[in-house]
């Protein structure tokens, strides 16, 4: 007897990419089955570029041929909720994916941008960290008392920022943010999505 072969959605991902991490966290949290394809960003597979010529990851290809090429769309798809993020969340995400991500890239690769010392770029990102600290000083998670999509969407970026200079982050005036990050970094969900795909 031949067994029916059910085609799974295919997620093109890159292990350390913060956009891909947020997508994988949402997919794992909702228990959605996908086939993962780990992409080398320096030699992207032709099939990925055919699906999404902009060539970023994550990209999700659904069995019906639909292609989701934005991490936040993939998160909403995993949750089965097109309105996963409300207006306040979208505003916070806009700052995360916009000015904070820009500052993160400059800070992380400051030697490639010698116009300013690294601390100047770091200071640009600190504006966002101050905002997160204010939220987390009064509630455990970014969306309230329960963790969820908003945390998953922002945590991978804060993790990268913290990792540029762990000593600085460890001493910076962000105790609630540090605790939040440590909690997510130790969470079974995060550890599961960071496991290396064979
Ligand atoms: N807006 C996109 C951004 C995704 C993105 O920029 N991903 C990076 C990796 S972290 C990428 O693929 N960059 C292309 C490259 O490095 O060639 C999303 O939310 O999915």
- Classification by helices and strands: alpha+beta
What fold name stands as the CATH topology of the largest domain?
Answer: Glutathione S-transferase Yfyf (Class Pi), Chain A, domain 2
What value does the average pLDDT take? 96
Low-confidence runs of at least 5 consecutive residues: none
Q: Tell me the number of structural domains.
A: 2
Q: Give the number of DSSP strands.
A: 4
| Structural Rg | 18 Å
Q: At CATH's second level, what is the architecture of the largest domain?
A: Up-down Bundle
Reading off the top of the CATH hierarchy, the class of the largest domain is best stated as Mainly Alpha
Q: Which ligands, by name, code or SMILES, are bound?
A: glutathione
Outline: globular
Distance between the termini: 30 Å
Question: How is this fold's topology laid out?
Answer:
Blueprint: E1 10-13, H1 18-29, E2 35-38, H2 46-51, E3 59-61, E4 67-68, H3 71-79, H4 87-108, H5 118-136, H6 149-164, H7 166-171, H8 175-185, H9 188-194
Parallel strand pairs: 1-2
Antiparallel strand pairs: 1-3, 3-4
Helix pairs in contact: 1-3, 1-6, 1-9, 4-5, 4-6, 5-8
Bound molecules: glutathione.
Glutathione is lined by residues 14, 17-19, 41, 55-58, 70-72.
